[in-house]
Structures are given as structure tokens and as C-alpha cells.
Design goal:
There is one protein chain. This protein is an alpha/beta fold. The protein has two domains: about 150 residues, Aspartate Aminotransferase, domain 1, CATH 3.90.1150.10; about 230 residues, Aspartate Aminotransferase, domain 2. About 35% of the residues lie in helices and about 15% in strands. It has a seven-stranded mixed β-sheet with strand order 2-8-7-6-5-3-4, sandwiched between helices. A four-stranded antiparallel β-sheet has the order 9-10-13-12, with helices on one face.
Length: about 400
């Protein structure tokens, strides 16, 4: 009897996540063969020795007995109320616990928010480069991602006029990612105000990805987008994964603010979808109140002399010393989006370079084109390794680039 020919859903066409894609699978094969791989492809603090604050671990332990039953579909009340208090501290006064959804990480909430919104053919404006889950989520739910450019020539910042020109009758929302993954750009308040004005005039939802909201360098200032939005719906995303180095706990939250009166049916749809997955991981939710109310230890890592600051400096020095590389200085988040000089390396291809760097130098990175840009001259690296490891990585990269230039 012949075996069935099982085909994947057509909705997956065009969906990519190279951060954990072909290169990562090849890296796993090399590890199984005994090679040590420097993994710069993913922002996963735990594998580089970063620890979640002890107080958060204790909060979970103290509440283990209350973690065995399902919670409310939106999350436990203490966690949601802690998010409300944080909003109020930032001047966002129109949020209550019913406006907060706890998810299994921000990733689940991004998927949920698009599932509740999109009809086939609806358009969502997404930055380019973007964190690829945003493009994938729009595509998976029948929508069309329309990318607005954030080129290195502009410091990876968008142009509000270009965004406005992309709006059509099918446009439903604008996605903002600041501090930005993959570029480290932090959007200035006047720029955010201009984009919010477009959204309010056109009746578009603002989806604001703020998972790196406190990972900032050299005095750069983060502006919560919800503080600027009054006349449309703002959906803000944050969580424990990055600022509190708790990726594996899978705890994120989504907060709705702004013009909520016209979004009641959408909010009901979000609650329905939350109910269908029953609830988010309860154990990790007990750490939210402690995280938001305690000392923000991330600042020790990002200030001059801190570990993230030191590695970032090493990246900037490595780029400056290179014949081939350039980078827009990251002012936030945990990444650098490094470019290659096409005049010196006219045949450079980010995917081919990534594979050769992995095979020959045992360094794993993410090709820039996987972040939905039309060029293949960049790659993303995380700032999480210690500075000595990063200095060694740049030495390996320069050796390979020299060899490529001689071919």
C-alpha cells in the first residue's frame, strides 16, 4: 500500500524563521560531531551564563502550591495588576487588569493578536528589517505584510511619510519595534508621535513590541508608545524573557490602551482565543509582580563597564578595525546588525557567508535577509557572549572575509 503524500499548509509559503532555520540545524549536526559552536544567532541569555534574579525564582517557589490549577485565561490577577501599576508609573492611566493578557511569551501573544484581527488580504505595515515573527504571523493568518524601510543610511529609522504612502483601504495596523530587533535602533519620541498621528488619522491599530524596553545604552531614552496614543487602539507587548533573562519561563504580556471603546469585539475575540489555549504557564506568572516591583538589574549590565556594554564595545571596535564591515551603533536591545562593504566584496551573499563561517570557523549567526530586507549584505549577531569571545569571533570573521576577498 503506498504511503500518503502529506503536504504542509500553503499558509506556510513565505514564512521564514532563519534564526532557528537551516544554519541552526547544521550547527546542531556539527555539535553532534564534536565541534564547539559559538551561537550568535539567538538572544538567549541563559546559554551565555546570565541568570534570572534570585527574587523571581523565590517568588515562583513560594507559590508552587498555587500553580497546579489553570488560571484565568488572561492570567493571574497579581501579575496583571503589576502590569497595570507599571503602566500607571509610566503615565498610561487608562489600563486596568481586564486590559492585560498574559501569554506563553510575547510570541504567543503576537500570533493571538493577529489571529483575532485579520481577514484574508488585510494588510499590516511591518518594519524592514523586522523580528521575523511579525511578518510570519501576518502571513499565517491570511494577511499581507507590507514592509516599510528602515535602512542603515537613516540609522535604521523609518520615515513617517513613507509609512503614510503605504496605507491602503486594506491596511489594519502598524507594527513598531523599539528598541529594535535586529538593529538596536531606539525610536525618538518625535518620530513615534508622527507615526502615531498617521495611525490615528487612518484608524489603524498600533502594535508596539517593547520587549527590550529597558535594554538601553549611552543614555538613550525609551518612549512607551501607549503614552502617545489617544484616538486609536494601542496594543503593547513586553515580558520577562530579555530584561529579566527568563526566556525559558515563557511569560509575556499584552496591554490594550487608547481608544478601547471601538475595540470591544476585538477584545472579546482575544479573550476567546486566550480561553481556547486555557491559560499561560501559571508558575512563571508568579514572578511578574516581583520583577516589575524589584530592582532593575538589567541596568548593571548595560551601564559602562557592564557585561552587555563591554560586549557591545567589543563589537564596535571589531567593526572599526575591519576592512569590510560597518554597523549602525545599537542604542538598545541585544543585537548588532552588521553590514558588509559590497565594493570590496561584490559577490557577498549573507546566507553563503553564514554557512561558510559556520563550517570553517564554527560561528553561527543569522543572515540579514531573514529579517525581511531586500538586500543580502548584512547579518545579525547577539551581544550576549562575553567580550573575549566576541573579540575572538571578529578575528575569525576577518580571516574568512580576507579569504573571500582574494577569490
Amino acid at each position: 500500500m503506498p504511503h500518503p503524500n502529506i503536504q504542509p499548509s500553503s499558509r506556510l509559503k513565505g514564512v521564514k524563521y532563519e534564526i532557528r532555520g537551516d544554519l541552526a540545524r547544521r550547527a546542531l549536526d556539527l555539535e553532534k560531531a564534536g565541534w564547539d559552536i559559538v551561537k550568535l544567532n539567538i538572544g538567549n541569555p541563559g546559554i551565555f551564563g546570565f541568570r534570572t534574579p534570585e527574587t523571581m525564582r523565590l517568588a515562583m517557589i513560594e507559590n508552587l502550591r498555587d500553580s497546579e490549577a489553570y488560571s484565568h485565561q488572561k492570567g493571574i490577577f497579581p501579575a496583571r495588576e503589576a502590569v497595570v501599576m507599571r503602566c500607571q508609573d509610566r503615565g498610561i492611566m487608562d489600563v486596568n487588569a481586564d486590559d492585560v493578557f498574559i501569554g506563553n511569551g510575547v510570541s504567543e501573544l503576537i500570533l493571538l493578536s493577529m489571529n483575532a484581527l485579520l481577514e484574508t488580504g488585510d494588510e499590516v505595515l511591518v518594519p524592514s528589517p523586522d523580528y521575523p515573527l511579525w511578518t510570519a504571523s501576518v502571513t499565517l493568518h491570511g494577511g499581507k505584510p507590507v514592509h516599510y524601510p528602515c535602512p542603515p543610511e537613516r540609522g535604521h529609522l523609518p520615515d513617517p511619510q513613507e509609512i503614510a504612502a503605504l496605507v491602503t483601504p486594506r491596511t489594519r495596523a502598524i507594527v513598531l519595534i523599539s528598541p529594535n530587533n535586529p538593529t538596536g535602533a531606539v525610536y525618538p519620541k518625535p518620530l513615534l508621535e508622527a507615526i502615531v498621528k498617521i495611525a490615528e488619522e487612518k484608524g489603524l491599530i498600533i502594535f508596539s513590541d517593547e520587549i527590550y524596553d529597558q535594554v538601553l545604552y549611552e543614555g538613550s531614552e525609551f518612549t512607551p508608545v501607549a503614552t502617545l496614543v489617544k484616538n486609536t487602539l494601542c496594543v503593547s507587548f513586553c515580558g520577562l524573557s530579555k530584561v529579566w533573562r527568563a526566556c525559558g519561563w515563557r511569560v509575556g504580556w499584552m496591554t490594550l490602551s487608547g481608544a478601547k471603546d471601538g475595540a470591544k469585539e476585538y477584545m472579546q475575540a482575544l479573550e476567546l482565543l486566550s480561553s481556547l489555549r486555557l491559560c499561560a504557564n501559571v508558575t512563571g506568572q508568579w514572578a511578574v509582580q516581583t520583577a516589575l516591583g524589584g530592582k532593575q538589574s538589567i541596568w548593571e549590565l548595560t551601564k559602562p563597564g557592564g557585561r552587555l556594554w563591554q560586549t557591545r564595545q567589543t563589537v564596535l571596535e571589531g567593526v572599526e578595525a575591519s576592512r569590510y564591515l560597518s554597523v549602525v551603533k545599537p542604542m538598545g536591545a541585544m543585537y548588532a546588525f552588521v553590514g558588509v562593504n559590497k565594493e570590496l566584496l561584490p559577490k557577498f551573499d549573507d546566507q553563503s557567508f553564514g554557512l561558510e563561517l559556520l563550517e570553517r570557523k564554527h560561528v553561527l549567526l543569522s543572515p540579514g535577509s531573514s529579517f525581511n530586507v531586500p538586500y543580502k549584505t548584512h547579518f545579525r549577531i547577539t551581544l550576549l557572549p562575553d567580550w573575549e569571545t566576541m573579540r575572538d569571533v571578529f578575528g575569525r570573521m576577518e580571516e574568512l572575509l580576507d579569504e573571500i576577498a582574494k577569490r
